[in-house]
């Protein structure tokens, strides 16, 4: 018997969580917006000039030009690496706290973050999810190359058709893998253990309604991203944090913009998290033995 799945409930699950525990939801939203704004503002202020220089570079394809570009890239990634490392650790703490609220309905303290089993389970399941996605993308890329070579027998037009069909296949393979692993982190936090196979098996049983829910959630995220892009036009600095005179905006100047950005981003993130959490709860209900009462 397949787990029950209602697309409307999946997309509205975040609002159900808010209605059930508004204080905890608002608390996590405030923490998320503050952290996101401060962290992103500091990051842009630190690495923005290097990224702007890379994007504005007009170096030619000469050995000297290539060496200059590699030098800029090296400096940029060297500055970015500490932010990536810190961001990955903090994101585990935040998402584990969010999932405790979404899948367990736990009341949160004023400082809702901790280092414990949930964070470990989420981190490991997240790495497994990332590994699955990388493998799926590699398989899709190989399939695209094979199609391109096969269709290239028909000439330039055939090669173009092969690349196009291969790209569609790459998107389909990667997208299918993303849907199958979508509930894995939430199900792992819910069950307190790594639930990769259970999550993939359950997602496969509700694949099409889950796909439809995820597509709607992603569309909402794209709309929010469009708002971010439009908002930057009203700021005194560009997307790299640079002022018209070429100077770098200060952290305080960037903070207000990124606070708005992260506040807007809470809703699409919550909807997608709600879809994943709803799916995890449906899978858990299906796998629970009949003698185990549903809480």
Please, could you describe this protein's structure?
- The two termini are 21 Å apart.
- α3 (63-104) crosses α4 and α4 packs antiparallel against α6 (184-191).
- The chain is globular and about 60 Å long.
- The protein has a domain at 7-118 and 194-287.
- Helices cover 79% and strands 0% of the residues.
- The protein has 295 residues and is mainly α.
- The model is unreliable at 290-295 (pLDDT under 50).
Order of helices and strands: HHHHHHHHH
What's the end-to-end separation, in Å? 21 Å
Overall geometry comes to globular
Number of separate strands? 0
User: Rounded to an integer, what's the Rg over CA atoms?
Assistant: 22 Å
Number of helices: 9
Q: How much helix, percentage-wise, in residues?
A: over 70%
Mean pLDDT: 87
Biggest sheet: strands, sense, closure?
A: none
Estimated structural class: mainly alpha
- In percent, how much strand structure appears in the residues? under 5%
Task: Extract low-pLDDT stretches.
Answer: 290-295
């Amino acid at each position: 018997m397949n787990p029950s799945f209602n697309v409307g409930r999946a997309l509205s699950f975040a609002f159900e969580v808010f209605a059930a525990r508004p204080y905890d939801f608002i608390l996590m939203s405030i923490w998320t917006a503050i952290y996101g704004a401060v962290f992103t503002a500091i990051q842009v202020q630190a690495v923005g000039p290097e990224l702007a220089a890379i994007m504005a570079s007009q170096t030619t394809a000469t050995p000297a030009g290539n060496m200059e570009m590699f030098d800029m890239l090296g400096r940029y990634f060297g500055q970015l690496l500490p932010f990536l490392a810190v961001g990955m650790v903090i994101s585990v703490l935040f998402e584990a706290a969010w999932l405790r609220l979404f899948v367990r309905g736990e009341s949160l303290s004023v400082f809702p973050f901790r280092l414990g089993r949930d964070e470990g389970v989420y981190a490991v399941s997240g790495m497994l999810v990332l590994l699955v996605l990388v493998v799926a993308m590699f398989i899709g890329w190989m399939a695209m190359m094979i199609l391109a070579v096969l269709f290239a027998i028909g000439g330039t037009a055939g090669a173009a058709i092969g690349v196009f069909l291969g790209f569609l296949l790459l998107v389909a393979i990667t997208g299918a893998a993303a849907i199958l692993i979508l509930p894995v982190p939430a199900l792992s936090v819910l069950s307190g253990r790594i639930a990769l196979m259970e999550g993939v098996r359950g997602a496969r049983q509700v694949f099409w309604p889950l796909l439809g829910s995820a597509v709607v959630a992603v569309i909402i995220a794209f709309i929010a991203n469009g708002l971010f892009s439009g908002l930057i036009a009203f700021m005194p600095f560009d997307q790299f944090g640079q002022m018209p005179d070429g100077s770098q905006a200060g952290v305080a100047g960037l903070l207000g913009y990124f606070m708005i950005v992260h506040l807007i981003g809470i809703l699409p993130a919550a909807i997608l998290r709600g879809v994943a959490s709803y799916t995890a709860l449906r899978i858990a209900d299906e796998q629970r033995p009949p003698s185990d009462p549903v809480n």
